[in-house]
Amino acid sequence: MHLIDPFQFRDMFADARSFAVVGNAPTILEYENGKKIDSHDVVVRFNRATTTGLESKIGSRTDILVVNASNSRAMAPPPSATLKPRCLLSYVSPQGVPSVPREPFSDWVGELPILLTFGPDLIDLPGEHHTRPMTSGTYFLLTILRMLTVERLFVTGFTMFGAKGGATAKYYKDDRPGVGSFHDLDVESRIFANLLAQSDARLDMTPEVLQVVGVADSGKCANGARLPLRRRIAGGLAWRLLNFGTKLRRFAESR
User: Fold this and answer.
1) Which of 7, 20, 79, 115 has a CA that sits 20 to 30 A from residue 218's CA?
2) Of 94-103, 207-216, 243-252, which range is least confident?
3) Backbone dihedral region of 110: left (phi > 0), alpha (psi from -120 to 50 degrees) or beta?
4) What is the reported pTM?
């Protein structure tokens, strides 16, 4: 792979001042934010994001693609053939992931420049107990807010896998079971909120992100409409079950 180091990554985007960080929650398709997203100096997307046919809603540009090492050509076409980002970024586990072979990921990455790095430390953020890594979205916000000069930040498409008024699925097809269960989302949602609250950048967020950070009414959809009672009950139960499952998992791991 064409590996780059953190200094090269920083230099690549040193002149950028505005960033659009576009998550993969299906709520992003409820807006016509394409021109707004593309107007930023840097547009960031994640994993197997796609823009074809959705440009008016989510834009067409991609400068940074944040990816997991589980990606391969068997799961999606390589990003060099789709989004054509300027570079890739991947957060790797210090323990490694033995079940994820390196060759398929390397083949998927191709010749695109890629920064492989560990997730950043949670300095000056709530140090609540968590046993699993955070999502790439939270790690990336931590990275750019500490490494680059961010004056304007637009954040959209994050619901903590349906915890706050969105859906658990992604806007693109992802048939993997248990998506989101690898993370401690109860703790991460608070870290995510505090991270944005501490930022000096001028923030702009869509309603579902405001719900994650505790600003908006969690009983509303991303477009401002009231969620049906059935969905509100199901969403509330799902989040409580997720919280209970996380606590139970932590108890088992401590044994």
Assistant:
1) 20
2) 94-103
3) left
4) 0.79
